[in-house]
Design a protein that fits this description.
about 80 residues, alpha+beta, four-stranded mixed beta sheet, about 35% helix, about 25% strand, globular
């Protein structure tokens, strides 16, 4: 299984919503969700601080920033799994 990153931070209700959208889709694409706390890195805070939650594949340049729904998350997962 390969990972997909969810850039987030603790206590972020939007991040929880994103996790709830993405989690049921992961098995369909043989992926597991790896949450990355942006608060642990100044670089990540600068890059994602006002954009979280953000989905990103470690193998692709593509990102999916909030807001997104189930269909947009599915389209993103299909695109990065090609």
């Amino acid at each position: 299984m390969q990972s997909i990153y969810l850039y987030s931070t603790p206590g972020c209700h939007l991040c929880e919503m994103a996790r709830d959208i993405v989690s049921p889709l992961l098995n369909n694409y043989s992926l597991y969700l790896e949450e990355i706390d942006i608060a642990e890195s100044d670089e990540l805070i600068e890059r994602y601080g006002v954009r979280i939650p953000v989905l990103k594949s470690p193998r692709h340049i593509d990102e999916l920033g909030w807001p997104f729904d189930t269909q947009q998350a599915t389209d993103f997962l299909v695109r990065i799994n090609v």
